[in-house]
Amino acid sequence: MKNGAILFVAALVFTQPAVAFDWSGALKDAMGKASGEPAGNAASSGVDALSNADINAGLKEALTRGADAAVAQLGTKDGFYGNPALKIPLPQSLQKIDKAMRMVGMGKQADELVLAMNRAAEAAVPQAKTLLVDAVKNMSLQDARGILIGGSTSATDFFRAKTEAQLTERFGPIVKNVTDKTSLAQQYNRYAGQAAQFNLVDKNQASVEQYVTQQSLDRLYRLIGEKEQAIRANPMQAGSDLLRQVFGAVK
Predict the structure, then answer these.
(1) Where are the domains of the chain?
(2) What angle do CA 13, 16, 21 make, to 5 degrees?
(3) Which of 80, 84, 137, 187 is most buried, with most CB under 10 Å away?
(4) How far apart are CA 11 and CA 35, in angstroms?
(5) Alpha carbon of residue 215 to chain centroid
């Protein structure tokens, strides 16, 4: 029975849950005005007094704060596991057979894997801080303009483009070291690897470490976006004269 439940994993299709990021478009008029494009009527008088350098510096400070806060929140014990909104669940195919696994006495293994995946993510996230901060420091005015006028996912797109490949490489070994200690992770990797040969498994879920790495990064970028939104929504509470000036003028 136990082997039958595990073998069933190989026949299931894995899908990567989409992660949406709701970035406000409130700063579009600011960069439109700064670049000579017609600005809307919202906050245009305040933005007129800002230089490109101020806007660029303000955005860099906001993103740096967001990155620092997100890494600090996630890169600690229970940063993922203790937060229902950020906790990484079993891969989808294992979720589908979770009840069956528990019926054949494998509930403990499933719970151990969930804990290991989240602990692995918490151990890996601190690796992100340097790369994220460097990406912001190296951001050009053109980058800033693209973020501000590029749409609801432009900031997330910027961070992904600058850091995702390197973070994937850094996270992988850390995650594998933690999750390989659970027997269910080893079984998952064996059967998911076989299923991947027949395109039955999404490439990001072909192994536990790939799945956890991608889930970790998705949550990290999402949390950075939420920190940024908080600054933009309440610039007067940002604790920085520059942020109050830039984001307050637009708001």
Answers:
(1) 2-6+24-250
(2) 160
(3) 80
(4) 54
(5) 7
Q: At what angle do helices 241-250 and 208-233 cross, to 10 degrees?
A: 80
Closest C-alpha to 65, from 2, 136, 10, 128? 136
Look-up of token digits 């601190």: 126
Long-range contacts of 94-99 (CB under 8 A, 24+ apart): 94/9, 94/188, 96/12, 97/5, 97/8, 97/9, 97/12
Decide: 75 and 126 in contact? Cβ < 8 Å: yes
pLDDT per residue as tens digits for the range 172-184: 999 999 999 999 9
CB-based burial label for 219 (10 Å; 0-12, 13-18, 19+): buried
This prediction has a pTM of 0.75
- For 126, the token pair is 């601190």
Looking at residue 251, the DSSP 8-state letter turns out to be: -
pLDDT digits (tens, 9 = 90+) for 8-23: 333 332 333 333 323 3
